[in-house]
Amino acid sequence: MDLKSNRTSPVLTDPAPMNMSTLGMHSTRLPYSSPRAPLCPGLTIPWKKTGILDDFRSSCWLDAMKSSSPPPKKITKAVNNEYASYDADVAYNAWMVEYPSAIASFEKITDQAKGKSIALFLDYDGTLSPIVDNPDCAFMSDAMRAVVKKVAKYFPTAIISGRSRDKVYEFVKLKELYYAGSHGMDIMGPVRQYISDDHTNCVRSVDEQGKEVNLFQPAGEFLPMINEVLRSLIERTKDVIGVNVENNKFCVSVHYRNVDEKHWKTVAQHVNDVLKDYPCLKLTHGRKVLEVRPDISWNKGKAVTFLLESLGLSNCDDVLPIYVGDDQTDEDAFKVVREGHQGYGILVSSVPKASDAVYSVKDPSEVMEFLKSLVTWRKSSAL
Ligand SMILES: [Mg+2]
């Protein structure tokens, strides 16, 4: 992740999204040699198969996989050296100067919110729920659910997740919220008064409660392709112990958290082998997960803008959007809230990390504390 940050603390950098352009190659310049016609909605862009390129892509991916979310506790434990632990603390504290705690800075944040409406955007995995070995078991606690329910009573609140919208709703189970799944490519939000020409995939629908909503799926035409890729990835990786291929509707997530590190290259190779037939899909790296999704100009940041528009809160000086997330894919949203809407991104991280967020919290328990403080502040300011 090249954030061009001018901050000076030692930081970890997340890997950048990998597609052909990041490898210095423009897809349209590659001569066709694939034996099968790639299924690209509105596109016929081939991928040239060469062993050298495959090796290069796989090795880039492997490097990115290795740098993805190194667990600080394991590093400390493995080194088993109190000086290493001390150094980690020093580095974290130095980083905190540049990404202050949202809890310690709470008064500063609420000072900025005076006279404004707060709109809240929350990632799910690693933000509201802990990162766990089995992604199907990333449950949020009842205490967290109760706090999110309360916060949504006072502020418009949306969950923006890489999971499918249905899956994240199953975890959260709060009808008071708006949900954007598949990294914002599947949004169920409030009925928009105005739909711009840019959003032709936005249709009126009804939710489970019969309430009228807008459904926006900017990558709708990719669905058959994504399903095909899902089947291929399941088949290709079936013999790799520990790999988990997850269907997130407009995105396929290949989790390698439980795969022995010596087999990560095999995982990267399998994903590479499948992806090379689909040049209009791209790969992004999350925390021990490779994510395959449509290579369209849409991300969590665009989803934030879309939801603010839907809520009638865009182009308003009296709105303060706050986005809380832990992953590389949340960076697009941090940038949008900071640059486009004078809001704040809050990065959830227990290790120094380059980010476009303004503040930080250490883990989901601190996210809960921050949300609780927002509720208390809103209640007291209403008196
Ligand atoms: Mg996350």
UniProtKB/TrEMBL annotation:
UniProt entry tagged with the keyword Repeat: no
InterPro entries on file: HAD-like_sf (IPR036412), HAD-SF_hydro_IIB (IPR006379), HAD_sf (IPR023214), OTSB-like (IPR044651), Trehalose_PPase (IPR003337)
Top-level taxonomic group: Eukaryota
Gene3D superfamilies (UniProt xref): HAD superfamily/HAD-like
UniProt entry keywords in alphabetical sequence: Hydrolase, Stress response
Pathway: Glycan biosynthesis; trehalose biosynthesis
Root EC class: hydrolase
GO molecular function: trehalose-phosphatase activity
Record bears the keyword Iron-sulfur: no
Reactions mediated catalytically: alpha,alpha-trehalose 6-phosphate + H2O = alpha,alpha-trehalose + phosphate
EC number: 3.1.3.12
CDD domains: HAD_TPP (cd01627)
Cofactor section: a divalent metal cation
Gene Ontology BP terms: trehalose biosynthetic process
Family statement: Belongs to the trehalose phosphatase family.
Protein task: Removes the phosphate from trehalose 6-phosphate to produce free trehalose. Trehalose accumulation in plant may improve abiotic stress tolerance.
Name by which UniProt lists this protein: Trehalose 6-phosphate phosphatase
